[in-house]
Amino acid sequence: MQKVYYLYHIRDKGAADEDTKAIGTYTSYELAEAAKNRVKDQPGFIDHPNGFFIDEYIIDKDYWEDGFTD
Q: What are the E-state strand segments in the chain?
């Protein structure tokens, strides 16, 4: 089972409005953390240090199998 680690940043703009930035996909959690450390002091990210997230995904696995509703 091969995994990847997806690093992204969400900036909450209030009133149910968010700005999401995909930063990258990495082969290990440590590489994703290193990428976070490289960008965290850049404009846009530095003012929202708690907006970083790393999600683990298994390659060749379906997600959202049951769809979604609004």
A: 3-12, 18-26, 52-58
Which mean pLDDT values do the consecutive 10-residue runs of the chain (70 residues) have? 96 74 97 98 93 96 83
Query: What is the DSSP code (8-state) at residue 32?
Result: H
SS3 67: coil
List the beta bridge partners of residue 54. Answer: 7
Token output for 57: 């995904």
For the whole model, what pTM was predicted?
0.84
Residue 45: name the closest of 28, 20, 15, 17 by CA. 20
Cα dihedral across residues 24, 26, 30, 31: positive or negative: negative
